[in-house]
Design brief:
Elements: E1 2-5, H1 11-24, H2 32-38, H3 45-53, E2 56-62, E3 65-72, E4 77-83, H4 92-107, E5 111-117, H5 118-126, E6 130-139, E7 142-152
Parallel strand pairs: 4-5
Antiparallel strand pairs: 1-2, 2-3, 3-4, 5-7, 6-7
Helix pairs in contact: 1-3
């Protein structure tokens, strides 16, 4: 398994991974209508290529298969953080997170924060994040619960 930065040719596989993960993993914690609103069928690969290129997007690649990805913004925000359904609980997320945290340290970022899904909350708690607040967000007419979480570094 290799952890590396995003390449534009990864966009289609990343978009498909996002879609499948939300639909097949997050369905444990959200309703069918919620996951359909979160990950609609009309995914635009160009949008993913643009967004992933504008951030530090780390990709876990296993012999040509993208097993997961996570995005770090310059302000310490961790956006999209997903692991392929076939790579759950295999340490993929931990490896991606380690790359993100190392980059944050390199950039002098003192605080990481994320809006974690119900599904991802435990992962981030295990990485030392604290829950700041539970919130309700709206996407395409559906309301979701997620958690604003942060990790502050004492450097």
């Amino acid at each position: 398994m290799q952890i590396r930065l995003f390449k534009p040719q990864d966009a289609e596989q990343i978009a498909q991974l996002f879609h499948a993960t939300v639909r097949e993993v997050n369905i444990r914690d959200y309703s069918s209508s919620q996951v359909t609103a979160w990950a609609p069928d009309d995914i635009n690969f160009r949008d993913w290529a643009k967004i992933c290129s504008e951030r530090f997007t780390y990709v876990a690649e296993d012999e040509g298969v993208i097993a997961g990805f996570g995005e770090l913004e310059l302000n310490g925000h961790i956006d999209c953080f997903y692991c392929h359904k076939n790579y759950q609980r295999m340490g993929v997320g931990s490896k991606i997170y380690a790359a993100i945290e190392a980059k944050a340290y390199e950039l002098g970022i003192k605080r990481l924060y994320v809006e974690a899904s119900i599904t991802a909350k435990r992962f981030f708690l295990n990485k030392g994040f604290s829950i700041i607040t539970e919130q309700q967000v709206e996407r395409r007419g559906e309301t979701f619960i997620n958690y604003v979480m942060e990790k502050v570094f004492n450097c």
